[in-house]
């Protein structure tokens, strides 16, 4: 029972830390363009083409 006194606040603290990191990444624009990076592989660069 004494272990729960330490484990519950640690678990809540880590959960709040993860939530804060998620909201920080939202504010920095990490999730603005989800499809752009996935589709960028299909775009051919003009400078790599041989004449």
Describe the structure.
With 51 residues, this protein is mainly α. The longest helix is centred in the N-terminal third of the chain and has 26 residues, at 2-27. It has one domain (3-48). The protein has helices spanning 2-27, 36-39. The model has no long low-confidence stretch (mean pLDDT 86). It is built from 2 helices and no strands.
Number of strands: 0
Kindly estimate the percentage of residues that lie in beta strands according to DSSP.
under 5%
Count the helices. How many? 2
Shape: rod-shaped
- The mean pLDDT is 86
Low-confidence stretches: none
Written as H for each helix and E for each strand, in order along the chain, the element string is HH
Gyration radius from CA atoms, angstroms: 22 Å
Q: How can the largest sheet be summarized?
A: none
Number of domains: 1
Percent range for helical residues? Answer: 55-70%
Euclidean distance between termini CA atoms = 75 Å
Structural class: mainly alpha
